[in-house]
Every structure is written in C-alpha cells, then in structure tokens.
Design a protein that fits this description.
Length: 231
C-alpha cells in the first residue's frame, strides 16, 4: 500500500522538528470537520506515491530533514505500516505517528517495536459523545479507551489533542475528557478552521477566551495543557 500525500517540508506537524509528512488514504472515522475529506471519503481515487520515490527523497535529505510525521486518514489501517517505518528509521529519521486510536493492537505493536519516537492521538470528545463527533451512527469506545491506556502506561513520548468545535464541545465535555486522560504529559486544544475541504462545513470555532477557560479546568490533571492554532 502506497502513501497518497507527501508534504516534503513541514514546521507544524512535528513540534520542534523540521519534518516531512506522509498521508495515508482511508479512515474508519468521518469526523465532520476533517480537512482531508478526499483521503477519507474516496480513498480509492487518491493518488499513489511509489514508496521507492519517497525513500529516494529521504536518502538525499539526511541531515536536513529531522523527522517524518505519518498521518492520514488513519495510518494504522496501512497493512505494511511498520515495515515502512522500519525503513525510515534505518535512514536515521525520527518518526511521529498520528492516530485516532481505533486500532490498539496496531498501536501496541508500534510501541513495542521501539521504532516510534512520538505519538499524537486525537481525543475526539468525551467518551459519551464519541460516535457523533466521529461522524458515526454507533461506535464501540473500548478500542479508544485501550489506546488511551496504552499511551498512559508509558514507553513512548506522546500527546493527546482535541480539535474543539462550538457545536460539539462544551465545559462538561472538557471535564469528562480531563478525568479520562489524567496523567498525560501534554494535551492540546486545537482551533477549528472551517474550509471547503472539510467533510462538512459550516461549524464554528471556539473563541479563544472560552478555550482558555477550558484549559484552566485541566490544571493538575495533565502535565501541560496548551492551545494550538490560536494567535
């Protein structure tokens, strides 16, 4: 299985590192505000970038690019994900994995391999609201809970993050999330930006003042809580 998107230079996707980002087509969620709608809704029509072309790029950029962010879509759906990560690691790159946490067996394998340097897991919403927020009619929350527990148990540096949307999140949701992820080293509340590439448009960002008030609720529950994407 090939990657379907390749951002050769990113200063945003892997904090504190000059990185490239690789995008997987396909996802088991349909989050309404997802900006990669073409990768999620029509993966069969997504472009295919030959793996050897990607490796050739990274062989030539050693010493210039520090890390690779593997994102999507949902990367854990890629059957040969770990094999590809192993090749990137053999070239000396740091590897960051973005995931929605829906496939804890794959996540466990990735953590136990020692090949992952950083994980960013989306916390879509409070557990009681997960299905609607993920754009599904029903959702078994147990795999998500298992992935949260895996990361909290240690073994790799990680963050949790939530894209906050006025129509989906509120103070009660934040309180439920904080109890769920207690002990995480870092948690980010990410600004939602409406756009034509979203699965559904027309939602509204949470204003900075309100988002900052939600951050205050997290004090003492996580190592650091920060806003991302707000000026």
């Amino acid at each position: 299985m090939d990657f379907s998107g390749f951002e050769k230079l990113s200063l945003l996707d892997y904090d504190k590192h000059i990185a490239s980002s690789l995008f997987v087509a396909g996802c088991d969620f349909r989050c309404p505000w997802c900006h990669n709608s073409s990768l999620v809704l029509d993966p069969a029509s997504a472009p295919s970038i030959p793996w050897e072309d990607i490796l050739s790029f990274f062989r030539k950029r050693r010493g210039m690019i520090e890390g690779v962010c593997i994102t999507g879509g949902e990367p854990t759906l890629m059957p040969d994900l770990m094999e590809k990560i192993a090749e990137l690691k053999s070239l000396g790159y740091l590897v960051k994995l973005d995931t929605n946490g829906s496939r804890p067996l794959v996540l466990r394998r990735a953590l136990e391999s020692g090949l992952i340097d950083y994980v960013a897991m989306d916390i879509k919403n409070a557990p009681s609201r997960y299905a609607r927020t993920a754009g599904l009619s029903a959702l078994d929350i147990r795999p998500i809970e298992e992935s949260v527990s895996l990361l909290l148990s240690g073994g790799v540096d990680f963050e949790f993050r939530t894209t906050i949307v006025e129509e989906f999140h509120d103070e009660e949701a934040m309180k439920e999330i904080r109890d769920w992820i207690k002990g995480a080293p870092r948690y980010f509340l990410q600004r939602y930006i409406d756009g034509p590439n979203c699965i559904r448009s027309g939602f509204h960002m949470v204003e900075k003042e309100k988002a900052s008030a939600w951050l205050a609720l997290l004090s003492g529950y996580v190592g650091t809580a920060s806003l991302r994407g707000y000026d």
